[in-house]
Design a protein that fits this description.
Length: 203
């Protein structure tokens, strides 16, 4: 009799467990699915909120990577302004030691957001010139100007006994609040020592 009661009790317990697992299984699956969807939505929201901040902090840490805001204007032999395009050769004009209209080849430099532009020449000389008073200010091979200023490059340095340079490189670097924004290179070349051409190359 006792064994019969024990077997009956065990069968009831097993039945309750089976019914419990059957009744809870769909609800548990639905709950897990809802939790996964909720977590995915939260993750997407976090990425959407933090993404612009991460990009902004990366740009501030290394702004030179994304900076290509240089605008360079050269002037042909007849004085016509030429908007310089990257990796496209442009005319600098004709050079003569006896040229009196300008002291060298003019280049107007603009850099977006910059408060200072520095230039370094591998050959020749950089010059500042104010046409109003005709005063020429030799800068040797390094100069600093503001965005929008015009600087002149001469293939012969003042007082030098060296012949006119046939090739040269002008490295142009833009700064804002003493932080480097970016740099570019102007490659200068001539084949006949008379007519010069350049090419703007982003670094």
């Amino acid at each position: 009799m006792m064994k019969h009661k024990y077997d009956f009790k065990q069968s009831i317990i097993r039945r309750v467990r089976v019914n419990s697992s059957v009744s809870k299984s769909p609800a548990w699956s639905l709950r897990r699915r809802f939790t996964a969807v909720t977590l995915s939505c939260l993750l997407l929201l976090i990425l959407a909120a933090l993404g612009p901040l991460l990009v902004r902090s990366t740009n501030q840490a290394n702004p030179a990577v994304l900076f290509n805001g240089f605008m360079v204007t050269a002037y042909a032999a007849d004085g016509v302004p030429v908007a310089v395009q990257p990796d496209v050769e442009f005319p600098l004009g004709k050079y003569s030691m006896f040229m009196s209209s300008v002291p060298g080849f003019p280049l107007t430099l603009v850099a977006e957001g910059a408060d200072r532009i520095e230039l370094q020449a591998s050959e020749g000389e950089l010059l500042l010139w104010n046409p109003a008073d005709s005063k020429i200010l030799p800068q040797r091979q390094a100069a600093a100007v503001q965005s929008g200023d015009t600087i002149y490059w001469s293939p012969i340095a003042d007082g030098s006994s060296q012949p006119a340079a046939t090739d040269g490189i002008l490295e142009v670097t833009a700064y804002r609040d003493n932080h480097k924004l970016g740099s570019t290179v102007i490659q200068i070349h001539t084949q006949d020592h008379i007519f010069y051409s350049g090419k703007l190359v982003y670094k």
